Amino acid sequence: MSVLSILVFLPLLAGLVVIMLPTAQQGRYKYIALGATLLQLLLSAFVYINFKTGADFSGVHQRRQFQFVEQTSWINLDLGTLGRLQIDYFMGVDGLSMPFLFLTSLVMFVAVLASWEIKTNLKGYFALFLLLDMAIIGVFVALDFFLFYLFYELMLFPLYFLIGMWGGVRREYAAIKFFLYTLCGSVFMLLIIIGLYFSVTDPLSGSHTFNMIHMMDPANYVGGSIFSPSAGQQLFGISARLLAFIVLFIAFAIKVPIVPLHTWLPDAHVEAPTPVSIILAGILLKIGGYGILRICYSIFPEAAIDSSWCIGLIGVVSIIYGALNALAQTDLKRLIAYSSVSHMGFVLLGFASLTAEGISGANMQMISHGFLSAMLFFLAGVIYNRVHDREIANFRGLSLLMPKFTAFCMVAFFASLGLPGFSAFMGESFSLIGAFTSESVNGLIPRWMAIGGSLGILLSAAYFLWTFQRMFFGELRLMGGEDWRIQLTDVNTREKIALIPLALMATLLGLFPALVFEKMNSSVLELIRLVNP
Amino acid sequence: MIPVTHFMIISAILFCIGLYAAISKRNAIMVLIGIEFMINAAILNFVAFGAYDKEVNGGQIVALFAIVLAAAGVAVALAIILNVYKYYKTIDPDKIHNLRD
Amino acid sequence: MRVEQIIFYALAAMVLGSALLVVTIRNLVRSIFLFFVALISLSGLYIFASADFIAIAQIVIYVGGVLVLMLFAFLLSNKELLNNLSRPVNRLINISSLPGFLLASAFLFVLISAILNTEISWLGYVQQNHFQPGDNTVHNIGISIMTRYLLPFEAVSMFLMMALIGAAHLARKGQKI
Amino acid sequence: MPLISFVWVSTLAKRGSGISILSILCSLILSAIVFTRVWNGQPQHFQVHWFSVGSYHLTAGILLNNLSAGMILLVSGVAFIVHLYSIQYMRSDPYLRRYWRYLSLFCFSMMALVVVDNLLVLYMFWELVGFTSYLLIGFWYKRDYAVQAAKKAFIFNRIGDLGFLAGIMILLNQFGTLNITELFGDGGAISNAMIEDGVWISGTHQMPAVWLTLAGGAFFFGAIAKSAQFPLHAWLPDAMAGPTSVSSLIHAATMVAAGIFLIARIYPIFDQNILMLMVITGSITSFMAATIALVQNDLKQILAFSTISQLGFMMLAMGIGAYDAALFHLTTHAFFKCLLFLCAGAVIHQLEYFKQAAKIEFDCQDIRNMGGLKNYMPITFTAMLFASMALAGLPFTSGYLSKDSILLYSFDWASSQTGLMSLVPYLAVLTSLATTFYIARLIFKVFFGSFRQKQRIPVLEPPSIMKVSLMLLVLFCVFPMFSWNPFSVENSWILKGFSADVQVLSQSRLLHILVPLLVTFVSFALIYLASIVYSKRDGDGSVTQVARDSFIYELFYHQWFINKLYNVIFVIPLMYLSRVSSILDNKIVDGLVNGAGRSVLFLGALSTFVDRYIIDGIVNLLGSISKSIGNVTRHFQSGRVQHYMITMILLLLTFFIFKYFS
Predict the structure, then answer these.
(1) Which of these, B12, D190, D314, D361, could form a disulfide with C111 (CB 3.0-4.6 Å)?
(2) How many CB pairs under 8 A join B and D?
(3) Which subunits sit against C, judged by 3+ Cβ pairs under 8 A?
(4) ipTM for the complex?
């Protein structure tokens, strides 16, 4: 029962405990959840510490190079003529997924701290919350496609209820929209999974398999099967593998909101309660990015190369489009949501460049964005809990009332602005450098895309500064007048406990990016070698 | 000897008349009569072919069963109609459309 | 030979005529009695197909049982119908029943064409055993019911019992359903 | 290394005021030690492995050569004096602790910027400096104007930083390393990268040659934003909204110098047409700023524009290859400009006291309602006088040495250039004359003539600490600090230190002597002219305008020297030109900036509209389509038994027909 299984099923256990307890001890749920996430944090720290780096531990497509591997056969049916249905419970961690574990557990810890403000039916809330926690961790560690898909779908279910029941005014609309958006993406993914299942055979047992690692090297593909690279099957005129890549990319692109498919994000964020929007922004967007890397890029490498120009373009468009939208927002949460779209644009640009700096920069950007957007939403939540209003125009000169809060906001705003010394700068600059050098390294991304991306940095500076200055500086003029003045108390200890680790991580990763880059480096180089030999 | 096709033609015509009755009649009982016509047309066919089967006379046995079942069917149908009538005060199928969602 | 055919066609004409009349007549009571006529002439046709037992069974069960039942139900349920009886129906087929008529005729056309196209001679057993009027069908029916078709026979009896109990229950007076 | 300790100390200084003074003092001493050890000695290099991404191994460390040693001494010296000064100046301010924290953060980032060896780390401190200037300008955040100015400054810096980042990207892509010594050292990668037939080859990579110029252009663009050169200078005048001590430290001595420092640091990368661009921007900026300064009435605005024009001078010097002259001018300028700002601060500070005492409302920064302070504030007056003489470049002052060296270089350089470029030195001379004129105007307006305010309450001398710091600075303005012979430029020891570059001053004796003489002579004449114009009569700006016209007739009548006539003809078009350029500047450049802002906002609004209505519209449309389809089919279930039968039979029929007749 290695670390990963504990890490995955710990929240489930806690969830069961929460359900078992009678509703009398409502107060205790918070602490059970807190304990569970704390334990999870320790476990992921443990994984982080003795995660071995180096050439022979990169393990993007070599099974033996993965670490903390667990593989037991899970479903083994003999389907007679169809051969054996073989799905195994296969978990493992490598450079690409390990940082996300730590990010997830920390953001979950902060989210639990943020759920102190939830008052209605706590039992349901915390049970769903822990279920969501388990599903997310599961997605990051699963290496068997079926298991991956199971956790991927399991994630939607609690989120739908969390937004639907504890959300803001238009929560049903937002919840349904979110659910349908992601679902229609993942339904097509299921088709591709089945296609892959029938075209890949496990070299050991000879039967079809869902194992991602086997799907990665072309040797395991059955001769004439639909997705076998040698067969070059055609589907509606496009090569089957490219079509599969596009479909999978769209499924994950909906999670990383890229421009045309992002409209669920602002609604979901605005309507979700603070802790849920923290998780939504903190981790869920990263699953999209991780999925693209782990599945789209490693299973269909040549399709990745063909379509990298378009992905780069989408990246640039979503950077500029997200920033422009953020500029025009009046609601704080919506502004942060659009800024996340813009920041995730950098991730896409980094991926498209297929250079070592590009991809590690993109991963760094995802991790730093995880911390920063979680912090931003927490801060937005702090204001919302006190005065139930998020309009930027209604606040002015907050720094007089809430000095400590202003200090945290300054760190968060200027960090996500991309000020050097914070982690966002590392992520953005390296994904831009990656995009820039890719023209001379592998000629995939033209240089003007990198320049376009850097324009995004300027725009993000504009809207963050504009908001920061409007809300915090100048004379004190509040929409709510006197009673707001009383309600707007400074951050209390609980909020400080949540904010300090996030701020610490943002600055720590900014000053010592080696913490993330070292761990990821060998896997990223391995991925590059896999994608364009 | 009357060729079988004649029998079949007659049963076909009878069947269509029954069908017409069942579809367009405004009165539930007439619909029932239409259904009876259709059943009898079928029985006629059975009997027509049963004649050729010497040892077993399968056709006629099925016809027998059909008649019996038709009788039972009618009994139940009429009971339903009576109740519908008691409930709706009319037995015009067009008026009874509470099943519409 | 000719007399048999004449009688057969006469009976067939009676069946179809009464059926048509049943369908078109406004007055419902008359249509039920015409239904009597159609059934009886139908049992006549059965006799021609050398199914004498079936003909008698038809008359006894069908005409005796079903029609009488239908008559009662009709009379019980049509108190208000008498007042709108007077509504004159000028043409044979009024507009409302046109779709039904068209559908039935289309169906008829399809059946007839199917019948005419299939050469009966194909069916193997039709050629060999031409039936002779003298065969004793009742004897065969009796044996086969008791031997080969015993199970369906019992099933039908069970079914009949259930149907009748149900019908009785449904049609009882007193409390509403 | 003492250096690391002192960098650490200045970060430590984040807390109270006392400690920050202490830390600045010891950082000054440490930098002095470093200066003595490194100056003209062997540059020291100390590196630590920072992190490695993909195939690049980025190292961060400290590089000390003449350039950084000189700069470190300059920065810590000025910072120390400003700290001393601001003890007094900021005493009454409620948020004093926060002020000290920001100031120490700024000094830390400035010193680190000057010292660091890796371009990426340089970029980090570059932005950090911008960020701290944002905090300091917006220090009095209750005043809306200050916050707007801070935001504007930060945005401008960000634009510059974009250029810087683009430059870094090009270099990283081409040379694979960002280490300054490897890149720009004498044997470094840049010098041995050759350009053949349009391809810029260095080792393995090669890129089209255009990228070399673009890299140079990008870095130059960054420098423009930071040193407030022509297109991006709009933020500096507004940045005066911050406390005077801040503007003196940041906008006079250190931060704006960072741009020049960057160019000096990566000098080899600039190829011909970038140098040309530098010359053009430098000259335009200096000339334009000088003319605008002539017209300004706000004390600090004049100084701000004079800073821009002096920076234009330095950029000009850089452009023409006078690399060392520019740095020399940078150092001298830092000192006397800082002194000017401090004196201005003292004046304003005292006038504020006076305003509270006299309880009358007047803008204490507007020079029009000052005057005659000479007899109230003698020490400040003397300090201001020295500083302005240095700024004007009169003999026996440090300004003279540095500015005239630039003028000389420009004449040398112009002799080798053709066409328009030969105009540059004359423009430079013109600008220096304009500088002398407006600084003289300032002095006479503020200190001479009679005190314009009605009340006669004596304006008392600024407190002692301020005076001490002023005196210290005066020391630096006078020539002995820089070269024992007031006239000859070459043998000033700083010049020799910086002359790491190729440009050697040609020895054309005639030109060499003629130019400074001419310049000094003309400047004396101008000062005399200014004294006549401003000190004798009273009245505010607009009145003087009318008076001057008639007055000019009078002036003409009094003057018997021919060149006086020449000056008068020259003064009026200059005035007209300056007014036009200031209007131009406000309309065009600010218009451009606001226009850009507005268009971006409009674009933002447009994109939200698109986003909300079109994309959301499509999604909702899909939803409603499926609902309507649902409704249509619902009607089929009409509930009538016979309809069901009809549909069933219809289905059967079609099936038969299809099957039978196909």
Answers:
(1) B12
(2) 29
(3) B, D
(4) 0.60
